[in-house]
Each structure stands twice: as C-alpha cells, then as structure tokens.
Amino acid sequence: MQKVYTKIESISGNVITVNAEGVKNGDLAMVSSREGISLANIIKLKGKVVSLQVFAGGRGISTGDEVRFLDRPMKISFSENLLGRIFDGSGNPRDLGPVLDENLIEIGGPSVNPAKRIVPKNMIRTGIPMIDIFNTLVESQKLPIFSVSGEPYNELLARIAMQAEVDLIILGGMGLKFDDYLYFKEELESSGAMNRAIFFVHTASDPTVECLLVPDISLAVAEQFALQGKKVLVLLTDMTNFADSLKEIAITMDQVPSNRGYPGDLYSSLASRYEKAVDFEGAGSVTILAVTTMPGDDVTHPVPDNTGYITEGQYYLRNGRIEPFGSLSRLKQQVNKSTRDDHRSLMDGMIKLYASYKESLEKKSMGFQMSDWDDKLLNFGEKFELEMMELSVNIPLEKALDLGWQILSECFAPEETGLKTDLVMKYWPELNKEDK
Amino acid sequence: MNTGKIVGINGNMATVEFSGNISQNEVGYIVLDEKRLKAEVIRVTGNSAALQVFEMTNGIGVGDVVEFTGEQLSVDLGPGLLSQVYDGLQNPLADLAEKCGFFLQRGIYMNAIPDKKWEFTPKVKKGDIVQPAYTLGVVPEGIFQHRIMVPFGFAQEDFTVKMILPKGLYSAYDEIAVLTDPRGVDHSVTMIFTWPIKKPIRNYEERLKPVEPMTTKVRIVDTFLPVALGGTFCIPGPFGAGKTVLQQITSKNADVDIVIIAACGERAGEVVDTLIEFPELTDPRTGKSLMERTIIICNTSSMPVAAREASVYTAVTMAEYYRQMGLNVLLLADSTSRWAQAMREMSGRLEEIPGDEAFPAYLESTIASFYERAGLVRLYDGSTGSVTIGGTVSPAGGNFEEPVTQATLKVVGAFHGLSRERSDARKYPAINPLESWTKYKGIIEKGKTDLARHILFRGEEVNQMMKVVGEEGTSLDDYIIFQKSEFLDSVYLQQDSFDLIDGSVSIERQKYIFNVMYEILKAKFSLSTKQEARSFFNQLRQTFIDWNSFSWESDSFKQTEESLMNKVKAKLRIEK
Predict the structure, then answer these.
(1) What is the per-residue pLDDT across A232-245, written as a single tens digit (0 to 9) for each?
(2) Do B272 and A257 touch (CB under 8 A)?
(3) pLDDT tens profile B56-83
(4) Residue B33 maps to a domain
(5) Which candidate, B462, B471, B448, B460, places its Cα nearest to that of B521?
(6) Which CATH class is domain A3-73?
(7) Are residues B308 and B235 part of one domain?
(8) Which of A115, A258, A310 is opposite residue B344, by nearest beta carbon?
C-alpha cells in the first residue's frame, strides 16, 4: 500500500523532510505541489525524519503538500523503444513520444566483479586522425575530454557520435545549454545517426537534482544494452556540472566540504560512474567519453584532478584541436600493434617531429636565425596542423596513415624522419610510384 | 544473540539502537529480506551505535533488525591464501564470479580459504607444551613450508597437546589437534583460525632494526634510495606519473618471499593487468608462476567505500601472518590516499570536527599505526621474518603539501617522490632524485652515492643558471658538471622497464656498473670547449646505454665496456 503524508517538516533548497515510517533508504516518493507532481528520492533516514531530494526542486513546495511513498527505488524503462528518443534527467520524454514504463530496470546497480573483467582489445574507429592514430579510443575505455569553457567540445562529441563505429550512442547531457541540446539533436537527426542514439538531457534551466541522475540513467541503460551484446558509447557532457550539483546537494545537507566546497566523496562518486565502463566477455561493451571543463584552465581543480586519477588517460582540447602533448590514451598500446605495421612508428615519428616543430617555432618567435632544417619543420608543422589536427578531418585510420606518409614525403627526405627503413620502403609515396 | 534496530541511515552509515552490550569494531549484520549486510561498529553513544556498512545501503529502512556477532572484523588465516584474489573483506572474487556472474551482488560472503586437502606433517607430539604461535605442524604451500600454528588469539599460557594427527592428507577445515589449557579445558584446532584485522599480530620475541636491503632491481631505488626488509616507503605522485607501473615492477622483481598487493580504490583495469599477467610470469627464484607467491586484495574505486577502508588492514594482517613463518613479505598498497578518503567520508558522516582538508584529526595516528605494522622480527624459534610496506599516495593536484602525503612522510623510512616534469619528459622511473630520500643503508657505500648526488644537485644548479645566462655565460667546468649529471641521469637513473635486460638489473651488475659510473663522475677530463664536452658525453651516453642492454657478462657486454673505457681514457687528464 502506498503511504501518503501531508505534512512537510522542512524545506531547504531541493531537500525536504517528512515524518514517516516504514520507508526504505533510496526509495522514491511523489511530491504533489501547485508546481506540479515531481519525483523525489530518500537520501537520509533519522528516526522518523525522512530527507528527500526533490527532482523538480524545492521551489513552490508548501508545507501542506502531499508526499506519497512509492516503495520502490528509481527505475528506468529499458527496451528497443528507447532508440531515437530524448528524455530528461528523470526519464520523462522531452520529445513528443509516449511515456515508456515497461520492463523497468534499476539504476546505479552493483559494480562489475574485477575477476570478470578482461583486457580490452578492440579499437573504436572515430574517423578523427588525432584520436585514431595518436590516442586510439579503445572499447571499454573511460576517457575525459579536458577542456576550457568555450572550446568546441560539444561539436567534437557530436562528430564522434556521428562517426564512431559503435552500435549505440547514449548522450548524457548535464547542465547543457539549450542551444547545445538543439545542436546535438539537429546534427544527429540530419546525419541519420539519431536512430541509433538515445538522449538523456538535463539543460541548465532544469532542476539540479535531475542533473545528478543523468549519468546513472545513461549508464544503467548502456549496461543493459551491452549485456545484450551491443557496443555502446556513452557521451557525457559536462561532468563538471555533475560535480557542481553534487556539491550543491552536499552543502544543502550540511555535509563538511573537503576541497573548494566539494564533498569528501567526490572521488568515489565520480569513480562509481566511470567504472561502469566495461567489456563483458561474450557480450557487448560500455565505453565512456566525458567532457570535463576545467575552470580557469586549471588541471589541479578538484574535478579534473580526481577525474585524472580515475580515467584511463585524457584528451586535452585546446584551440579547437586535440593536443598531441598531454593527451594520452593509456590503453592504446593494447590495440595499435594490430592495426597496421606502420601505426606505432608513424605515430611516434610524427609526434617527435611535431615537438621539434614547436621548438623551431619558439626559436622563430624569439628572432633566431632559421636553418634549412627549421624551415622544413615549420613547413611540416603547418601541414600537420591543417591536414591532420583540424577536427573537421574525417578519414578512416588507413587513409589517415597514408596521409601521414604523404605529409612526411612532402616535407622531408626519408632519412630525416627517423623512421625505420623497411617501413619507408613500404609506405613512402614516391618510392611506391617508382616501383610501379 | 544480541540484536538491535535501525533508527537512521545516512549514506553508508547506519545508526542502530541496541540493548545489551556491544563492543567497538564489533561486526553486525543488517537483515534485509533474505540478505544480510555486513557492518562494523565505529561509535557507541548511550544505547545507540554508528555502524559503517560495507555494502550499498539502498532498501534499508528504520526498524530493520541488526544482528551483532560479538566478534571484531576478522580474516581467516590458514593454508590456501597464496595466489588468491580477494575483495576488501576477504571474499574470493573468482568464487563470487562463479556464483553471481558479472556483478558483485551485495550480502554474499564466501569462505576465504578453499576446502582443500593438505599434506600435514606434525612437529609436536602428545604431551608437549605449546603457546600461541608455536608451530604444531607444517603443510607445503607452493614453495613454502606453511606453519600450522597455535591460534594467536589463544590466551598467553601453556597448553598441553592432547591430540595431534599423524602425518597425512587432511582438509584445512579438519580438526588436527586438541590442546588442553592449564584449567583442563580442551580446545580444538584446525588449520584455520581468525584474527581481527585492526589488531597487530605481536606473537614474536622482539622487533629488530631493519638493515638488510630489499632489492627491487630498479637502479635508482637500489643504489640511491634503498628500502630495507622490514622497512616502509611511500611513493607519492600526480596522476600519470607512473605510480602503479612502478609498483607493478616492484611486485615482480622484489627480492622477497611473498608479495601482497592491496589495490585500494584504484582502477579495476590495472588489477586486471596484474591478474592476467602474473600467472604467465615466472618467478626467477623458483621458476614457478609469480602468482604462487602473490595475494591480491582488490577493492577498486567503484566498490563500497567502507570495505576499502578495511582492505588495507586485511592485507597487512595476512602479511603479518606469513611473517610468523619466518618469511619476508612485501605489502604494496595502491593507493593509501583512497584509504584516507574513505576515512574522511566516514568521519564526515559521524559529524566529527574536521581537520585539514576535512580529513579527520586522527588521520596521522591512523596512518602511523598502519605503517608501524611493518617490521623485522625475531620469532620464538629464533628465525626472523619481515613485513615491508610500500604505499602509493595520490596527492590532490600533485601537491605534496596535502595532509595524507605529509602524515605519511613522517612515518616512513624512504620517500620516492614522483614528479610530473620527469614523467612528461618520459624519464622513467619518474622518481625525483633530488627531492626523494631514504633512511636505510643501500648496496653501495654511502660516500660514493653522496658524490653522485652532489653532482646531480650541482648539475641542476648549473642548468637553472644556464636558463638565465645561456650556455655562453657558463664556465667550462660548470658545463662539464652539468654534462656529468645529465649523463648519470640518462644512463643510470632512467631505466627502460619494458626492456628484458635493462628492466631488471641484478645487484651484482648494479655494483659493477656503478663503480664505472663513479670513476667517470670523479674523473677530470681534458676537454677544451663546450662543443667538445657535449659530443664527448653524448658518445659516452650512447655507449653506456648500449652497454645496459647487453646481458650481464656476455661477450657484447665486455666489448662495450672496453669501448666505453677506451673513450674515457682517451680524454682523461693525467694528474701529476
């Protein structure tokens, strides 16, 4: 039987308390106020005093409003019908489609037994050379995109959503600007990728509590699809907003803050979401790419700092490009040995030359004399940035590798590249022509 | 049985009202339908107790029953621990996977020690007088003689052996002996007994000063920053500096009998690497799989936080248990910061007054008493055993001033600080040779390593100066010192851990090549220009690196050494 209470004892921010009995920690309740009906979940029990966070926020709730306990935890419908649909942070439709309530699954479920994990072995092709060649994305990897506000990180995510070779894309938007939400929607609809995508979007104007639910809902659905054998890529933007929502609730609940106001369990809260990335043996996988904006371009800020300790590398987005320095895919070694024999050497070789280009550039800006070699490097660096690093470049890995050789051959003699002779013989464009 | 009722839930803390007596750190189970969730008493006020719950607390309601066990949080000790993978509460993960599939279901606890038969050889006979921790018999576990001892928890008094089984094959759970205490009461003994994890095992004659180096085959550690058997060390470093890789290398190469890895609140993927790699690797000392000398305690970042706090204690208790067999045990905890954070979370829920960065005031004493469980001891039978503890620290923002790093530095004997600058420059292992220190004696005379450190220090000074005044403003003597320090850094401090030869360097070899290095560092060279100095040291570097990659005392090794020495001699300034 559902219990109904009509006396709300306290309202503080998004948290209300009710005197109630026989309810369970984590369970849902329905709060009816003149603002409408909202879900809420139990976050603390103390004797009869039950604290609930109201998904729609505390605004307009009156002490005489009705709280109805549902005796079940937060759940989300799971079926193929989710495909192509857009929901908010509570799982209600944001598009014009019907409400889904069949086959409910638990969110924020238990973690995977480490003994059942396997070493990741498949790359995810994105068509973006800076990812595919230099910091390969691997199935079951969790990677943040560290970026300053204003960088085109959502454009990057949208490109990955359209181009990545996966079965399913789940986009979790947290504190998303409404324009950005529309941008994602239009891009994916016009490219036809929408029918393999599911959106869970919390926009900046929605209640804070819904922001907290987005990663859990997205990952719970992703996990179920993965168990059914699907290769799922979860895109989350922006995790810093998620952390800020955690902060907001923690402060409302009078928790002692640890670092810059963030709660002491920030690391665990982030980790329990990121660790949902997994490759199920004999079934599908969950891969997570999550934007983390760095306030003030400061990587030691608690959110990027804690994230860095959790994830398997990071992409730095600077000046509209994925930086080759600092960006790191810890798992790339697992896959780039078996793509093409020149992959690793070309990757290392081009990065070394690009690093030298940066030095030459610095020398040039300080007014030093440029040698022939410096000129060659400058030429190479410009070509590299224009033809490889631009985010608009969309070519498969093999074409990108060929392009790499093409750029090298236009700028250098083979022996200047420091690449092994046998690879040069095989891939250097001019030599190939001579053979023919 | 003593029971109580839930009156409050806040995150992973439950408040329970009880009647009767309960004790601090006692284990209670919250009864939830057919599941029982493990929890530990962490504070008692009046008739209400705060319990930290080792599982997710969803679905618990006010009024739910809690059953108290009267026992503190304990682990099972006995043969069969080696090569196992446990969670923080000593549940075998492989068995859990078999039972529950992909996910860790809450409220499922399994026997830590497999029901396996062991070849038992008694070491006492009927009528003998024994005390706790005395050996009753042995069973072979892997390459070790696993001592079956009188349970450490028995009272410190004389017991008479009333019955002991003859040599034979018995299960770990069989009764193997009956002991009679001075009051005439009989006690049954199996191969297994339990021990509370937060209580150090002190059944030994005396604690000794750690002196003998524990070698790791990592040059910068063994030569410059050694760790002694029974000592403690810490590895703080920002993310991506290679803490975990360094620990993995140490766990493979360390010259100890048993390695216990406590993966505490870190990435699950890294544990998987170890899980997959170790069974394939052979232990150079025994020729058997490395897994046979390893125990992994794995409580990764997404597993319940309270169990993370317990996991380092679970690990150190097992380490102390094997020390009682006269073995040298190395415990690697990765990372102690996550353990400290678990304490912070709980302290916040208890509404304690926060200290620095909201860590509890008892952070320092807790860290100190954990590291103090390391040590070299002389056992009752005269043999010695040791527990060496190495913990990584993940300081927020890579800043070593934070409370966990500082509290750790106070109590450890060696500090291997990793730096972002060195790891960004791909200088591995990224231990900063100038900031790090050790209190232990190494394999090489201190006078010699002091000279090398001095050169590193001076080289860094010159390097800083050169950034301001340029190469042309630096004197040739200073420039040569700079070149020497760069040379030492690139061929000796840096090491390619993926190279078969260079990855693990024996002590004999380290001593030998360090002497060569010492002569070069000490030597005065007749070099007339900076250009000449640079190209001379470049040549030395290239030859030395080649030398590092040849196997010890092979022909190529000897040839390269000769060529190196010839290059050195050619430029040596002869003193009158």
Answers:
(1) 999 999 999 999 99
(2) no
(3) 999 999 999 999 999 999 999 999 999 9
(4) yes
(5) B448
(6) mainly beta
(7) yes
(8) A258
